[in-house]
Specification:
The chain is an alpha+beta fold. The chain contains 3 helices and 5 strands, in the order ββαααβββ. The protein has 2 domains: about 1-40, no CATH class; about 45-110, no CATH class. The longest helix has 23 residues, at about 40-60. The protein binds zinc ion.
Length: about 120
């Protein structure tokens, strides 16, 4: 059941009435209030989450058969978004994936270098 409760935007402290599942804790109410808030910080967080979700969907589609690799790339996305780590590069199968964040954009690059060597 959905009930109406009061939550507080974690940025501007504005109180809002939010619709949440019955029994939702205050943290959930505050998250919903932050989500619905129109203050610049809340909008910015909303924008960041949309980008993260889009990146995660892209990773899910690209590596649909390799759940470990998906987790690694998702952790990389969160890491670069939070500036906890810089650029992350990793090799998965024959591809090199580079995850980077710049100017508020998340960049995921997939490279495959073809080379040939023969010895006689
Ligand atoms: Zn706010």
């Amino acid at each position: 059941m959905i009930v109406e409760k009061t939550g507080t935007c974690k940025f501007c402290k504005q109180m809002k009435t939010v619709s949440v599942p019955e029994g939702a804790d205050q943290e959930t109410c505050d998250a919903a209030a932050t989500d619905a808030c129109e203050c610049p910080e809340a909008k910015e967080e909303h924008r960041r989450r949309m980008k993260k979700d889009a990146a995660f969907t892209y990773i899910d589609n690209m590596l649909d058969k390799n759940s470990y690799a998906r987790d690694v790339l998702k952790a990389a996305v969160e890491g670069v978004m939070n500036k906890a780590v810089g650029k992350v590069s990793t090799k998965i199968d024959k591809y090199t994936y580079t995850v980077d964040a710049a100017d508020g954009e998340i960049k995921i690059k997939r490279e495959f270098k073809e080379s040939q060597e023969e010895s006689f």
